[in-house]
Design goal:
Largest sheet: 7 strands, parallel
CATH architecture of the largest domain: 3-Layer(aba) Sandwich
Number of helices: 19
CATH superfamily of the largest domain: P-loop containing nucleotide triphosphate hydrolases
Shape: globular
Distance between the termini: 37 Å
CATH topology of the largest domain: Rossmann fold
Strand order of the largest sheet: 12-13-11-14-15-10-16
Number of domains: 6
Structural class: alpha/beta
């Protein structure tokens, strides 16, 4: 049964948005029974509709029941949302195939899923698919076959020496698998099989469903006065409903220890905790700090977790066995049984924005979920996003978040000195990228036995390869982007679609031999210069090309902390909260890199990244220095970094956004069209233009060809919608799209509050 999504209210924020005109949803036991005739199911397929099913012989189903339903030739998982629409003939109804043998999802969690679908304008089936991303978790857990000694042992049993070793081990262990017994007793599989055949071993089937070990604090932390005040502020709101906190502390101020205190108090109250990290797969140091504090590792949820572990994590979150889950943005869609606290670490990070399928920002959805769960949410950062800064009431607007400041580093550590290296006055030598002042500073650190970090947010060797004869640039055949030279891999790579090719010595355009030149630096080229300038120094490159797994990240961080690396060369991965006690110098090779282009948040993001990278220096008892190579020291970002006046920068950025009518003081949405050929795209853009809304308080820019007009083999166009904050932008878009008829083969994607403008 098809059902259109509800029209939303004009609240303007996902935290308080409610569908209007929607059917009453029931959450109490007496009324939550779905109709005995039909139930409405969100099937885990990317369709913006729900489907009516008969309960069949499964009896009454409640809102949140997990079911398997027939869908075409397949059987797919789904979530019961409530009673069916009731307008489908009974003889046309299909029946629910089975009820998943798990407790129903909490009604507040189902509310969250519907709110996410309404806010993002994503199909409800796509949201359900995110929740049900581990179909194995919906099945009974697999069972392990263990062996144990019968009680009593068989009469007249005679055991060889090998069999006796097996019996002795089981006398202590109780039950073990065949592989474990073979390893511990030093016997073959044939010995185990022979003992079973002789009746000397019994088989017992054990469910592979043991919950994680309990989280236990390793003693009280010694907190500074600022940390203790912050911890007590958060503690005062635990268990008392929804409260959003902005935990705003300089790098090295001990924000993690503050929210660890809140984690412990939440666990003491018998509630679960969700912690989001932007790069959880690479956060070995953070996980070690958690282990040191709580004695065990948290339950992890991210793309690098093996399917078996993910199945367990999903079920343990649902049953309450997983006390603390740390994960990437998708962990927001785990079905916690009794969620009591959400933490979003590094809340400013762009990585929290999901850019495909269901397009959402994890920070905003975390606030929404905490509201529906009636629990606090802590947004922790040293460089707040402008949205959070405004919500904390820092520009004069009424505060929505409670602001907690940690203005000083803990212990003897001090914030690093920040200096500019004006490349107009002291440019690097020809063919090199490090200016003399930075080279001299690195030399001083090497002589003192201290570590340096060179930051350049460009992977590979060079971002562009061109012909020195005719000027031809090597571009990706699937995208409007340059191919990046990766000399270590011997490949040209597109960083948008992943296309690879062998480098050519001759120009494909003019045929000139040996004319192709690498232009500009990447981290590999920077490493080449470091090797030339400092041949005795030990250096390592930290990028997604060289550190490709959590184990590799852990190994890299450990080698730096052990003093095995003198110079780190890194991309943005090195700015993710790493703590290197021996690091006293940070050199930012191209501080202007992120300021170009038409990105609304370019200045804000550049400031945050540079401040975070600079904050890696001097985190122990030795003073730190950050040097920024720039061609323009007068930009607001450079001025703020050099003066250390972050708040002044944010105030100025907020005022500029307010005057321009841009977020967070207005609303934006992007409508992105794509097609396999340009003619269909042009037709779709004309249709979009002909039906665009004309309302007071609504401005439409475009549609026009997107800045990245060809991506992954598809031609792209986009329109931007700008509305006043009181206008319900989702309702405007719904009305627009209701009149739109697109040519076949054209895709339309809606991005509420876009972060990407390409």
């Amino acid at each position: 049964m098809y059902r259109k999504p509800p029209v939303k209210s004009t609240c303007g924020t996902p935290t308080c948005q409610r569908p209007s005109g929607a059917r009453q949803t029931v959450t109490d036991t007496s009324d939550s029974q779905a109709s005995t005739m039909t139930v409405r199911v969100a099937v885990a397929v990317p369709l913006d509709r729900t489907f009516d099913y008969s309960p069949g012989g499964h009896g009454p189903l409640v809102r949140g029941s997990l079911v398997t339903v027939p869908f075409g030739p397949r059987q797919l998982p789904g979530i019961v949302l409530g009673p069916g629409e009731g307008d489908v003939k009974p003889e046309s109804l299909k029946s629910v195939a089975e009820i998943v043998p798990l407790p129903p999802l909490e009604p507040r969690f189902v509310d969250f899923l519907e709110r996410v679908a309404a806010w993002t304008m994503a199909p409800i089936g796509s949201v359900a698919k995110m929740v049900l991303s581990q179909p194995q978790a919906l099945q009974p857990p697999p069972q392990r076959k263990l062996f144990r000694r019968p009680s009593p042992p068989p009469k007249g049993e005679k055991l060889t020496a090998a069999r006796q070793r097996v019996a002795d081990i089981l006398g202590l262990a109780g039950a073990m698998s065949s592989a474990e017994l073979q390893r511990e007793a030093g016997v073959s599989a044939g010995v185990i099989a022979g003992m079973q055949a002789a009746g000397s071993l019994d088989i017992v089937l054990v469910s592979d469903e043991a919950p994680p070990p309990p989280v236990q604090a390793g003693g009280d932390l010694v907190l500074s006065a600022d940390q203790r005040a912050a911890a007590e502020d958060i503690a005062g709101r635990l268990g008392k409903g929804f409260t959003p906190f902005l935990l705003d502390g300089v790098t090295g101020s001990g924000k993690t220890e503050v929210y660890f205190d809140a984690v412990q108090r939440t666990l003491d109250a018998g509630r679960q905790v969700l912690i989001l990290l932007p790069e959880i797969a690479l956060s070995a140091a953070w996980k070690q700090r958690f282990h040191d504090r709580f004695g065990v590792m948290p339950t992890e949820w991210h793309s690098d977790v093996a399917p078996g572990r993910k199945r367990k994590a999903w079920r343990h979150a649902h049953t309450g066995g997983a006390q603390v889950v740390v994960g990437a943005r998708s962990a927001l869609f785990l079905p916690f049984a009794r969620l009591g606290l959400i933490v979003v670490d590094e809340e400013h990070e762009h990585a929290y924005k999901q850019e495909d399928q269901v397009i959402y920002h994890a920070r905003d959805m975390a606030v929404l979920r905490s509201r529906l769960e009636s629990c606090p949410v802590v947004l922790a950062t040293a460089t707040p996003s402008l949205e959070s800064w405004v919500n904390a009431g820092m520009v004069g607007d009424p505060p929505r978040y409670r602001h907690i400041a940690l203005p000083k580093r803990i212990g003897l550590a001090r914030l690093p000195e920040i200096r500019a290296v004006d490349l107009r006055r002291t440019p690097p030598e020809s063919g090199r990228w490090l200016a003399r002042p930075l080279v001299a500073a690195i030399t001083e650190r090497l002589e003192a036995g201290e570590q340096s970090l060179l930051f350049l947010n460009r992977r590979g060797y060079a971002p562009l390869t061109l012909c020195g004869s005719c000027g031809h640039k090597v571009t990706c055949p699937n995208c409007d982007s340059w191919m990046v030279t990766h000399r270590l891999a011997g490949r040209l790579k597109c960083h948008y679609c992943g296309y690879e090719a062998r480098p050519r010595r001759d120009c494909p355009e003019c045929g000139e031999e040996d004319s192709m030149q690498a232009c500009g630096p990447g981290v590999e080229r920077l490493a080449e210069e470091v090797l030339q300038r400092f041949p005795e120094a030990r250096f390592a490159v930290f990028s997604s090309d060289t550190v490709t797994s959590p184990a590799a990240a852990e190994s890299f961080v450990r080698s730096v902390k052990d003093g095995e690396v003198d110079i780190i060369i890194g991309t943005q991965m090195v700015a993710k909260g790493h703590h290197f006690p021996g690091l006293t110098l940070v050199g930012i090779v191209d501080a202007d890199l992120g300021l170009a282009g038409g990105d609304l948040r370019a200045a804000e993001r550049s400031f945050a990244m540079l401040a975070q990278v600079a904050g890696r220096a001097g985190r122990a008892d030795r003073p730190g220095l950050a040097m920024l190579q720039t061609t323009d020291v007068s930009t607001p970002v450079m001025k703020a970094l050099l003066s250390g006046d972050r708040d002044r920068f944010l105030q100025a950025e907020a005022e500029a956004r307010r005057l321009a009518g841009m977020p967070p003081f207005a609303r934006l949405a992007a409508l992105v069209l794509s097609a396999s050929d340009s003619q269909r795209l042009q037709a779709a853009m004309r249709a979009l233009a002909e039906t665009r809304p004309n309302y007071h308080g609504v401005s439409v820019y475009g549609p026009s060809i997107a800045p990245l007009g060809f991506l992954r083999g598809r031609h792209r166009g986009r329109a931007l919608i700008q509305v006043e904050k009181t206008v319900d932008i989702q309702a405007v878009i719904q009305g627009w799209l209701a009149e739109l008829k697109l040519p076949s083969g054209v895709r339309l994607q809606v991005d509420i509050d876009p972060y990407s403008f390409v």
